[in-house]
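Sharing a chain and its predicted structure for anyone who wants a worked example. Both blocks are below, sequence first, tokens second.
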Amino acid sequence: MKQTLVTVNFSVDRKVQEELDQQAAEEGRSKSDIFREMYRQYRFNRALQNAQAAAQPLAMKYGLETDDDVARFMHEH
């Protein structure tokens, strides 16, 4: 199914606008494409933060502080 695109307007300071223009030109991409990528990354980061916050009590309960601790715990259980 084809996506319907809509126009969204927002304000940024001039420096951000100049940097976005330059980035788009360097990459040969539209500013809209860069914004869509930034927004996807933002949503991913928020979901990751929420998952980490939800898992924190369990991690504290089992003393899991590092990725290695988690891997070891998963292997043992």
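Comments welcome. The CA atoms of residues 3 and 36 lie 13 Å apart.
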